[in-house]
Amino acid sequence: MIVSNAMKLELHLIPQSSFYQNVRKLLGSRWDTLSRQVRSERDFTCEICGTKPKSTKDVHLHELWSFDDDKKVQKLIGFQCVCVDCHNVHHWGLSQIRGLNMNILMNHACKVNKCDSVTFKDYVYKSFADWQKRSQIQWTLDMSELEELCKVIQCPLISTACHHRNWQYRYGCDKEDKKCAARQMELENEHNKLYS
User: Fold this and answer.
1) 28 CB contacts (<8 Å, ≥6 apart)?
2) Tens digits of per-residue pLDDT, 91-149?
3) 100 lies in which domain range?
4) Residue 130: which residues within 8 A CB-CB, separation 6 or more?
5) 76: which strand partners?
6) Closest CA to 12 of 74, 47, 64, 68
7) What is the value of pTM for the model shown?
8) Rounded Cα distance, 38 and 34, in Å
9) Residue 6 CB coordination number (10 Å)
10) How far is residue 20 CA from its own chain's centroid?
């Protein structure tokens, strides 16, 4: 996450070296349970612009990450409920790739940040310069915050999966490891029995 004290609605550009390493992928089908629980607790309201969309599907759960450039650690620091427009601004680069109307997103970002387009464009430029530097680093993921959150919202199977998958991330266990794969299958089956 690129932090700027001046911007309420920030760009959260994930380094290219960390693409597809996220909580949604980590949890698989359990992501929906976690997302629904957290969004419900936060009244399905965007925590940035204050919008409460008519449909709960138009409020997304966004992962918040910090980056320790010296230690090369990408740490999950929490979650944020965001409307579709704020989420698309967070993922500015992905929004461009998807062909979204960047003028609409720019207007939304300027309104929320109470700034002009020149100021925001300068911020985007600086954010992408930081992103390029961070994309050269191989990050170690720290998802210990996820384990704590899962305990708080009382999702024991998610918590167990987080612990097991964190072990995979920390120690390099991958899908080819039969012990890890077998344990993951057990967790999936337990989850499906309870939530199906």
Assistant:
1) 188
2) 999 999 999 999 999 999 999 999 999 999 999 999 999 999 999 999 888 888 777 76
3) 16-142
4) 2, 13
5) 65
6) 64
7) 0.74
8) 6
9) 10
10) 10
Enter the DSSP assignment of 82.
Answer: E
Does 148 reside within a domain? no
* Structure tokens given for 73: 């650690």
Residue 115 belongs to a domain: yes
Q: How many CB atoms lie within 10 A of CB 153?
A: 15
Q: Is 163 inside any structural domain?
A: no
Handedness of CA 100, 101, 106, 112 (dihedral sign): negative
- The answer to whether the CB of 158 falls within 8 A of the CB of 31 is no
> Per the domain annotation, does 181 fall within a domain?
no
Alpha carbon separation from 140 to 19, 65, 146 (Å, rounded): 13, 12, 15
pLDDT in tens, 23-65: 888 778 788 888 998 899 999 999 999 999 999 999 999 999 9
Where are the strands (E) in 23-142, listed by range? 59-68, 73-83, 140-142
- Total number of domains in the chain: 1
Q: Are 141 and 21 in contact (CB under 8 A)?
A: yes
Catalogue the long-range contacts made by 122-131 (C-beta closer than 8 Å, 24 or more residues apart).
123/4, 123/6, 123/7, 123/11, 124/11, 124/92, 126/2, 127/2, 127/4, 127/10, 127/11, 127/13, 127/92, 128/13, 128/93, 130/2, 130/13, 131/2, 131/13, 131/15, 131/16, 131/93
